[in-house]
Amino acid sequence: MLEIDNLTARHGSLTALSNVSFALEPGKRLGVFGHNGAGKTTLLRCIVGAHVPDQGVVRFQNKPVAAGHVAENVRRGIAFVAQGHNVFPTLSVEQNLRVAGLLFDQTFAKEVLRIFPVLNERRHQRAGSMSGGEQQMLALGMALMTQPKWLLLDEPSTGLAPVIVRNVMRQLFAINQTIGTGLIIVEQNVPATLKIVEHAVILKSAGVVFDGSAETLASKSDLWEWF
Ligand SMILES: Nc1ncnc2c1ncn2[C@@H]1O[C@H](COP(=O)(O)OP(=O)(O)OP(=O)(O)O)[C@@H](O)[C@H]1O
Ligand SMILES: [Mg+2]
């Protein structure tokens, strides 16, 4: 179980999250939506322990995540793919995977290369010379090297062509189905995300204004009024 319990987070005098609560069973798929500045990235950063909340707690398997200690939380099974292509541009694809999995089972690289055939074909290519979509897949693969129980993704579709977005979403769904990794996907592309998630949370001005099934949200004709 992953529990976000009454989380309030500030950046100086600005309140980015205010009394945010929701809970997820292991292996679930959640989409987090909301306008710019709604607090989505801050929420992911609190979950992985990169931002220390002012109030409330994130609990993972009944134990609080270590606020301010990302490495510890990653070791426990929470992986975070930040926005942008976070790869080491001068290293090869395979080297990137190995660096990401340095403290974990290196042989899992084989599994990651099987999940992403594109990466396998290019495993000796310099990461910086790959396309945006390929680099996004590598960033995903690097996160998987820690064999996470939860994968947090901050706007994975940014800057990708629609066909690549569909591909990335399909890969995420496949990862969830084959290795059971829970997904928390922050996205501006709501329709593409709703196709693969089961639950949705909408943040507005630091608070939760919707917490329900993806199906319910998708069926709302006034969906866009939430933003
Ligand atoms: N390091 C920081 N210092 C000061 N203010 C910050 C910091 N990080 C975020 N904020 C502010 O906190 C609020 C929430 O930011 P956050 O990045 O969580 O929003 P978001 O929903 O991810 O937005 P976007 O869709 O633009 O990525 C914003 O008003 C932002 O300006
Ligand atoms: Mg953000």
Q: What tags apply to this protein structure?
A:
binds adenosine-5'-triphosphate, Rossmann fold, globular, binds magnesium ion, 227 residues, alpha/beta, six-stranded mixed β-sheet, four-stranded antiparallel β-sheet, single chain
Summarize the structure.
This protein is an alpha/beta fold and 227 residues long. The protein contains nine helices and ten strands. The longest helix has 18 residues.
Could you walk me through the main structural features you see in this protein, from its secondary elements to its overall organization?
The chain has 227 residues and is of the alpha/beta class. It has a domain at 1-77 and 188-227: Rossmann fold, CATH 3.40.50.300. It is 35% helix and 27% strand. Helix 3 packs parallel to helix 6 (132-144). The model has no long low-confidence stretch (mean pLDDT 93). Bound molecules: adenosine-5'-triphosphate (ATP) and magnesium ion.
Radius of gyration: 17 Å
C-alpha geometry: globular
Structural class: alpha/beta
User: What small ligands are held by the chains?
Assistant: adenosine-5'-triphosphate, magnesium ion
Low-pLDDT stretches = none
Can you write the helix and strand succession as a string?
EEEHEEHEHHHHEHEHEEH
CATH class of one domain: Alpha Beta
CATH architecture of one domain: 3-Layer(aba) Sandwich
Strand content range: 25-35%
Provide the helix percentage. Answer: 25-40%
Rounded to the nearest angstrom, the distance between the terminal CA atoms is 28 Å
Largest sheet: 6 strands, mixed
Q: State the total count of DSSP E strands.
A: 10
* Strands in their spatial order, largest beta sheet: 6-7-8-3-9-10
The overall pLDDT average reads 93
CATH topology of one domain: Rossmann fold
According to CATH, the homologous superfamily of one domain is P-loop containing nucleotide triphosphate hydrolases
Count of alpha and pi helical runs: 9
